[in-house]
Amino acid sequence: MSMLDLLSSQYHQSARSAVRMKRTRYAITRIIGNELPPRDTEGSRLRVLNFIIENEYMANDAQRLWLLNRVIDKAYLIKLKKLLDLAGERYLEETIDWVAYASAHSRAEKLTVLININKARNRCFSELRQLADFIMVLDGDCFFDKEAWAKSTDFIFNDQLTNTDRKYYAHGIHRLIPDSPLQTSQSRMKLEEPIVVFRADADLLFDESLPFGQDEKQQFLIQLGLKRVGESWFQPAPDTLVGLGGFVHHLQTGSDEMESDYRERMKARNESLEILLKRADRLANLELLRHLHGLTLLKFKARQWCAILQLSSKRIRQALKRFVSRIVP
Known about the structure:
- Helix content is about 45%, strand content about 20%.
- The chain is an alpha/beta fold and about 325 residues long.
- It has one domain: Spore Coat Polysaccharide Biosynthesis Protein SpsA, Chain A.
- Strands 3-2-1-4-7-6-10-5 form an eight-stranded mixed beta sheet, with helices on both faces. Strands 8-9 form a two-stranded antiparallel ribbon.
- Helix 10 packs antiparallel against helix 11 (about 315-325).
């Protein structure tokens, strides 16, 4: 039995078809990007998305929103939208500026245009700050069961009683691997790089200039006052900006070996990014060809218009020529 099946048998809850638009205490928002083999096994992202929709614990004082972030595989994008639409889920979409991608020179610049996960995180927060008091910005494979939700929201509630000015929280990530116990007492969990929770009036945001894969989330966690030692995180001072407590589960999208070994995951992720960049290079060339073809066609039509104008009166001809000059480079 897979980890998803095991969790589903214990924490099943039907997805809510109604899209929430009223203000709630909490909002869960996730970013779904491209499926990246070999880091991801084929179909794993869709399976994880379906599992979260069907099984995540959703309290009455919570709502959720999804962001489809610059997905380049059109067939995969259609499947994502169909799954979300059938479940009545609310989602947004970020598209790729292929002209900007073609103009990028370095690998880092290309990744910034192609993924820019921090811009996606910031957009998730900005979209929901008017609809919730606390916005939980999760990766696409993070998941709350009832226990994780209770521990995380109880921590925020209790901390706000004494730290009324606190605007940021961090929940540790509990990575689920095959055959790992479901008992999730925090004393037995290895909590990895946390996710960030914003209070609606937060003013610090993720740095959008940092490319994916270059500690783009860690830099913000450090700015908030967290410190990393090995694979663990802790608060170095009692007056730090962020409250660290609670946790979310991280669901499996890769092979058993990768989910259990940090080095294997990083190695596979780098290989996946190289494959993605090569694919994006090809797509960018096709998009630019379409763009240039469109300009050529427009210029051809403009010449036809100008020929017709020769038969028109002088004043009409001048006015139409000015109009054509504005729309044709």
